[in-house]
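Final report, Chapter 2: Outcomes

The project's central promise was a pipeline that accepts a single protein chain and returns its three-dimensional structure in a standardized token representation, suitable for archiving and comparison. That pipeline is now operational. To close this chapter, we reproduce one record exactly as it appears in the project archive, with the input sequence first and the structure output second.
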Amino acid sequence: MLVVDVPPVVLDRASRTPLSAQIADALRSATADGTLRAGDRLPSTRELAAALGVSRTVTSAAFDQLLAEGWVGGRRGAGTFVLSAVTPAPGGTVLPGARDTGVPQLVDLRAGAPCLEVLDRSAWRRAWRAAGDAAPDRTPEPAGDPAFRAAVAEHLLRHRGLVVDAGLVLASTGTSAAVAEIARALPPGCRVAVENPGYQRVVGALREEGVEVVPVPVDRDGLVVDAVPADVSAVYCTPAHQYPLGRRMSAARRSALVARARAEGWWVLEDDYDGELRYDVAPLPLLVALGPDVVVHLGTASKILSPTLGVGWMVAPPAVAESVLARRLGTGVRPPRAGQRVMAAMAVSGDLARHLRRLRRELAGRRAEVCAAVEAAGRAVEGDPAGAHVFVPLEGAAEEAQVLAAAAQGGVTLDGLGRHLGAGPDEARAGLVLGFAAPDREELRRALAVVTTVLRHDDRGPASPEGDGPVTGPAARP
């Protein structure tokens, strides 16, 4: 047994992160990098408090967190010991991402990531602790955790204006997974219409289930309903904030889509992308409110909280819901309940509503900075004041490729429209799908200076605004 003196702990007293959380994070990291090993005895909370210049209450809280997580354990009269630590890989190798390589990582300005900077980590931890207080499940629940389903029903009422009974809500593991489940309920070899440009992950999920995908154009009013073929079984769309062009579907198009679905026997798969994140006016009513008999409503917590939870939901007509539940019962495959309980805990405590208010304010401010940076380069910004991305039109596929490459040289990952076109690059449709949620605010500002430069076609190249190398930040997200 090795008795450790004081592990390396650096405290940032100006940080918003509580000191107890900083200490717990530092000790946890020390077990991961080999500084602490299983069996090591830690100093007492009193000794650690004296060494770090904090109160014993702070160190006790840190130890309590690590005890709850299972990293350390206490023995009466003997002290606190490390129970779990990462064993270095043979030959000195480490798993990818386990160690800083010294190579600058790109600031990611692609759309689809959550804004974690505004997530209250104390609320996050409270929700996980509350979720852990629930008794272990005796039997599976294919429809989802009852508390989660009730929380989603309340969430849809308060933030999307939809009155729905909790019994009609089904848990899912996210939008793409839900679309795949619904595809299994459709006739084999059927055709499903999708927006073009649109969400290619859903396209992939449909094709994996043997569905023929039919691209349908999108304009300033959303999906062109008249362009949907008559022989489809379903239509997938993002009416609240079209991904990736950022427009909302007009009221006339919504009515026309529901009317055709009823007349021709389609299902409409409504992906409520960014539906909670409107910060100018109230969004248009959900499609499912107009056509609950033909619309399957899909939502997810990945963009408003974190993909860590792996939770989403659907509100479906009885025929679809019954088919999904029957397949879950028959295969034993169902959404895990842990993430559902975390979201339910955040909703019940009011932390989710407070988080959404902070998130809307933050994203509105970020969008204003993005628009200013793009307009400073003499370019236009398209898309409604909502969500966490805008669209910047470019002259063609060649310019799109040039801008993406120049930004990458300056340390910024951008996303081009070409990746979202089902039929491949189109000279007539090109642009940037510019996200602004992933980096912290300072990284965003430095990255936007690079964006302004590359959009100006500055002959000096996309150097960082400081002039001393590429802009660095969090690793690019998939």
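Archive annotation: Residues 351-376 form the longest helix (26 residues).
This record, like all others produced under the grant, will remain available to the consortium after the project formally closes.
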